[in-house]
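Let us work through a complete example step by step.
Step 1: write down the sequence.
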Amino acid sequence: MYNYKERLIYTDLREHLSRKQITVITGLRRTGKTTLLKKLFEEFKTDNKIYIDLERIDNRELFSEKNYDNIILSLASRGLDFKEEALIGIDEIQLLPGIVSAIKYLYDNYRIKFIITGSSSYYIKNLFGESLAGRKKVFELNTLCFREFLHFKGIPYTSPKTIGRQFLPAEYERLKKHYEEFIRYGGFPEVVLARTIKDKIDIIDDILSSYLNIDIKNIADIRDQKNLFNLLKMLAVRAATRLDYTKLSSLTGISRPSVYNYIDLLEKTFVITRVPVFTKNPDREIVKAPKIFINDNGLLNRLTEVGSGVQFENAVFNQLKFHGKLQYYSLKTGKEIDFILNGKTAIEVKERATVQDKNQIKTLAKRIGISKIIIAARYPTPSFNDFTWGGDLG
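Step 2: predict the structure and record it as tokens.
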């Protein structure tokens, strides 16, 4: 039996089990989608259910049938009763794009609850959006946040009820080595549970290789994957900074339209995220370009060597995204607020925070009508303790 550790998203997924809508779990490969599917499969209160793994050729053949009656006969021969409420779990749906029409037919004509996993937002959102409009809800599964990281390691931790609690020296001393591991090696479940540094690195390298050689080949007609990989490394070097598509085109030798399309593909397949600028009113002084972040710190650090401050800010991004919508605010003078959370909270990221940092973000936040501010720091400062330790951001 698989080793199950509950994810934060699980409560919402379990609640959705009782709804007719198709439950779609998507996200980067190796984030635990299959494990979640199997756990939800257990929770469904009927024995009239079947699990379909599309990595198996016979299962792909089953759903490749053009005659839906033959699909029904095949599923019935495996024990599914179409006269009763049923559950069908389908794993790795991106391996069989043509399956969507069959799912739609079964959904519309029988009392069937579907739970589906797939590792490509690029495929699922575009194809499902057209074919299954109103029939599905998509849940995106990220790599672990730090709270989940600690849970997977069996380390007790009570997260703050609201983000931004003041620095607690005892908690920092207890958990700091774990947070440093999170910043360095990220939150893929297998990586977190791996016992040696070598194993962690090998798993991350395998995830990167599988993404480029399997996922990308399955969903996009990219003839030169080397170009995509070189661009990804270039983006990692620029993590936590503003995107300049023209400069990236010049440095990589890839046309500007292709650079934009590649970045769009990398974002829609969960490897990167573009964080947009925060604006309440049109302002000529505001920088408009989005910032780029890598969706796991282990990936970031295997793609390139970046400074300690960039590693920390990228880790903070990967924690804050669990709390809602992220933007940033920046003036052409260079002054900026690293993150605006849900349009209401200004967050400044510093490895070591000072009172001057607090005063500066307070001034900038006031300019855009935001009163709640948080200084997120990686290390304590003897003369200043009015900050939130990065590990307490969730």
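Step 3: interpret the result. The first strand starts at residue 22 and ends at 27.
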